[in-house]
Amino acid sequence: MANQSETVRVMTAFEAFTEDIIKQLTSEVTAELGEATPVDTGWAQANWVPNLHSHHKGTVGSKEEVTQTAQAEGLVKVYTMYELPDLVFVSNNVSYIMRLNAGHSGQAPKGYVQVAILKAIHEVEKRV
Known about the structure:
Helix content is 55%, strand content 6%.
């Protein structure tokens, strides 16, 4: 029978492992969504922003000036500050993201968001 210190050690290891998986998954989901998103100006692609506790508010950059700074900052925030039982969100608030996911663009099929998330899950599973 395990003593209390052994139980604490195992639980600490379990939490660290779980937190690492969530960090990897957040990174992979963000990357897969970015790769799968149809590109005209790159604005929708750049607006997949990870965040802790709630979805990212608003949009970043503009159609004329695309920046991936918020995306990078969101990933850094997740990697440096995430702890169980926090929630992680990867969201996109451009006004037409739902239309893109509905197949509006010929560059990506209907439901590409769901496919990208499943692909990310499978990629992380291969590493575990």
